[in-house]
Prior knowledge:
Blueprint: E1 9-14, H1 21-38, E2 44-46, H2 55-67, E3 72-77, H3 83-92, E4 97-102, H4 119-132, E5 144-145, H5 147-168, E6 170-176, H6 190-194, E7 198-203, H7 204-213, H8 220-231, H9 241-258, E8 264-268, H10 275-279, H11 284-292, E9 297-298, H12 303-316, E10 320-327, H13 331-338, E11 349-354, E12 367-370, H14 372-375, E13 384-390, E14 394-403, E15 409-418, E16 428-433, H15 437-446, E17 453-457, H16 462-471, E18 476-479
Parallel strand pairs: 1-2, 1-3, 3-4, 4-5, 6-7, 6-8, 8-9, 13-16, 15-18
Antiparallel strand pairs: 10-11, 10-17, 11-16, 12-13, 14-15, 14-17, 15-16
Helix pairs in contact: 1-5, 2-3, 3-4, 5-12, 5-16, 8-9, 9-11
Amino acid sequence: xxxxxxxxxxxxxxxxxxxxxxxxxxxxxxxxxxxxxxxxxxxxxxxxxxxxxxxxxxxxxxxxxxxxxxxxxxxxxxxxxxxxxxxxxxxxxxxxxxxxxxxxxxxxxxxxxxxxxxxxxxxxxxxxxxxxxxxxxxxxxxxxxxxxxxxxxxxxxxxxxxxxxxxxxxxxxxxxxxxxxxxxxxxxxxxxxxxxxxxxxxxxxxxxxxxxxxxxxxxxxxxxxxxxxxxxxxxxxxxxxxxxxxxxxxxxxxxxxxxxxxxxxxxxxxxxxxxxxxxxxxxxxxxxxxxxxxxxxxxxxxxxxxxxxxxxxxxxxxxxxxxxxxxxxxxxxxxxxxxxxxxxxxxxxxxxxxxxxxxxxxxxxxxxxxxxxxxxxxxxxxxxxxxxxxxxxxxxxxxxxxxxxxxxxxxxxxxxxxxxxxxxxxxxxxxxxxxxxxxxxxxxxxxxxxxxxxxxxxxxxxxxxxxxxxxxxxxxxxxxxxxxxxxxxxxxxx
Length: 494
């Protein structure tokens, strides 16, 4: 993965001047020791300049963590803490931040008389002051803990901080407009700017010109060789690899030429209706390869799909995919392969599908084929370029961040799994099972007007995603509610 940040969290301990400063010093040292014993020490930096008790100390600490290259901040209440200067530190630090507090320990010098820090109380005042200053900070579910517990909290913050920082430094490059009769993935882009994301919208004619300029690129043979190696026995359309390599180089060169001031990039690409006839292929396999490189490429100019994929890539530190919430599982497949073997009803299951954009590393088997749906109305030779196969079984998180038509951020997250059941179908596809999916589908996905595209991360990452969405200001976050927990629109008499 070369398209996401490495995090360095500056740990700054604070102290209220009428409490023993030594408590914050010792507790900070213990926290850093606990973290380095359990996790990667390069993820944190211990600010040694001072314990923050005043605005002067705050400025000294801020300068120190900036010099150290910190791109995230942890304010650690070793005792009650100075509510003004500690929240000013969070306000002036340009990056994701969190607050944690020290639990009392009677074994410390002074016990619960001279050694009591009252950080449990101080966290309340910190939260009030953060609100006064309009500062958004991550506060764990229970933010008071021992050195070891606070180390775990900081470690849980790493992927959230990583995603927040990455969004603030992201550019989404799109090639459009969207296909006609395809309003589903259309959404206002104002929320991208609110998140700190830049957007570069291009015509597919610009892309086509660049593609033609790459026709005799001397790098094409080496890319073709790499593709053939990846595909192995699944290389059923070797005649199309030259065009696909040409297109891959076009995208990669475009990204580097248009990155501008931004550190990270995602792409929302065009794939129909004129793409096939003009480019002479479909882009699905190339989309999968860039996504596997850590540069997510969404289909059908789905800008918020690309945003969701990028978030999933950063949070999971792994390849993701973007799929249609596509079709129901037939009764005979359910009865023969799922019922009695897995604890899911038929309504808990569905098939997630896209034409062939899922990376080979996330497929149980793969073959380079033509796009069957497009080939129904076009010559087959211009529809080659999909990567087909059943998606690997295992845990998944299905999710999406979306702007509504009236410009509000909304999201959903659901844990589930891909079942080890043959799909008997085409494209990049899997049989998904999500508990209470039927109700979730009707009372959140449909009710809240989500499009059919959903991002898939391979593993369970709901906690980090939920905390991230809260951090960036998403007020409505849906999830697959368990039986007995009614959605607002669900009929209690059904």
